[in-house]
Structures are given as structure tokens and as C-alpha cells.
Write a structure and sequence with these properties.
Protein name: Rna-directed dna polymerase from mobile element jockey-like
Structural class: mainly alpha
Order of helices and strands: HHHEEHH
Number of strands: 2
GO cellular component, one term: extracellular matrix
Organism: Limosa lapponica baueri
Shape: globular
Helix content: 40-55%
Keywords: Nucleotidyltransferase, RNA-directed DNA polymerase, Transferase
Largest sheet: 2 strands, antiparallel
Radius of gyration: 18 Å
GO molecular function: RNA-directed DNA polymerase activity
Number of domains: 1
Amino acid sequence: MVSDLLQHLDTHKSMGPDGIHPRVLRELAEVLTKPLSIIYQMSWLIGEVPVDWSLANVMPIHKKGRQDDPGNYRPVSLTSVPGKVMEQIILSAIMQSMKDAQVIRPSQHRFLVSTGQVLLGKPDLLL
């Protein structure tokens, strides 16, 4: 799973405060999969994440209108890419656990992300 997530990182996204760019992780996915898997597993077992993964650089992004008006900006938090990968792994584990335990009733399935929506978000998986 780690390898797949690394290989499908969006290289056009920005790096977080740790300075690790998604392109580096994507291009070195084969080499980094094992060490990151160990870090993720240890983090899961002890219930803590590296401090750097909790940090964010908050950047103002201009929405529209006059650039000298602070109200025309929205804050964007740039977080650690390895931290985001771990979040995806945890989300996947939670969703699988909920599916296995049949926590979500059939009437609630429409609120989940469908396979089609996932594929639309990752067009390179279709190639």
C-alpha cells in the first residue's frame, strides 16, 4: 500500500515544513517504501506521529478581487507529505474496519467515496 501511495503522489503539490517534496517521494518510492512502512508501523503501534508531521506552513492564497484586501485571501495549510500518506493509510484501515463490521447501513453508502470518484481523482491509475 505504501508503495502504491508513493507512486501516485501528485508532484504538482507543495511540500510541507519538513521540506520533502512529493516528487522526491514519488521518484524514490521503491527505495523509501520499506523505511517509511517501518516508520508508519512503529508510529501506529506507539500511537504517536513524528512531531514534524504535525506542523504546517500556513500560506495566504488569493481568491479574487483586490490583492491589497486581506479578506480576499484564504489560508492554506501545507503539511508534511509523508504525514499525509500515513493519514491515507489510517483512513483506509478505518474504512476497511467499518466495512468489515458493517457499521455503515446501506442507506448511508451514498455518502462514501465511490470507486469511480477515486478513479476520477487519480486519472493516471486508468492508464
